[in-house]
Amino acid sequence: MAFKDLSLHSALLDNIKLLGYNTPTPIQTQVIPAAIEGQDLLGIAKTGSGKTASFVLPILHRLINKGVANQKTRQPKVLVLVPTRELAIQVAEVFQSLAKSLPKPVKSLAVYGGVSINPQMKSIFGTDVLIATPGRLIDLEDSNAVDLSKVEVLVLDEADKILNLGFQEEMQNILTLLPKERQNMLFSATLNKKLEEIKKVLLHEPKVFEIKEKAEATELINLAGYFVSDKKKGPLLRHLIKEKGMQQVLVFASSRQRADKVAGKLNKNGIQADSIHGKKSQAERIDILEKFKSKKLRVLVATDLISRGIDINELPYVINYELPRSPKDFVHRVGRTGRAESEGLAITFVTRDETHHLKVILKKMKRYMDIEDTAEMDF
Q1: CA gyration radius for the chain?
Q2: Domains present along the chain, CATH in parentheses
Q3: Which of 220, 264, 269, 315 has the most CB atoms around it within 10 Å of its CB?
Q4: In terms of Cα–Cα distance, which of 349, 343, 351, 246 is closest to 299?
């Protein structure tokens, strides 16, 4: 199937072609027609499967055809709720890239905490699509900066994470501010009990689309491990990056202090690196992510929380400088690579004391990993 078979507006098809998309992903093939018809739906597919475009394209199609774009009010027609600042920025970027040169301009805006609220309050005027984190949206509504009474489409992106991060109270408040007649779309990487509960409350006779990960998709992620002491992790990291000529390497650290330290050591040894974590300002984080995505930065050292907003289709290398606490976090980390049908390598540093913990993780993943002992290695 091609994008032209999905009944999308011709201007959107032109933008899709310019962006280099060839064929729709499985989730896009299933979701887009149902979304265009105005149905409530639940889409379940892993991160990196094309979920964002699966709701962005039918929303833009709707706005073009209904002629509701570019209304000079504080009443957005579309509300997209996301769990993190980074995801808000990413979703806004997808809207903006797919909305270029449309017959009717569509203004999208991302609003989130951690930055001054005043510029966001001013920018909401004339916004058609508002992408927001729940807490900041409540702040804006309390300040009378936004009116949600005209929202026609509600999207919860990464709904499982919104609920897991404890936004239930904010969500209840937001839902009371929305009109009852609207289209609702939920997207998630997993289906859990909390998501089932909100599905019953929010969705009316929904279409459910679940894209199960193919076994071969997981195989695109090559796993490798090294037994190494904590003291030798830094030298081993630098050795691997230089020896293998690695470019665009995402390194996971357990804390912001460790992330800063690892990045600092890499820079001192001639390897361009930076760290990204919650203590850095939003402007810094956006700048660092942009440099890394455009390959102007060789190594990015990230904490688990901040990694949720790092979405790069062809990231070649992920390195676990330290093991995460949970198998779910490990899967999320290594899942940053091996995407968009491109192979990736995920390397894990393991101390001898962590052997059992790693075995538990690999068992849950149903994967095997060769682990090389660095005791005899010269680095």
Answers
A1: 22
A2: 3-210 (3.40.50.300), 215-373 (3.40.50.300)
A3: 315
A4: 246
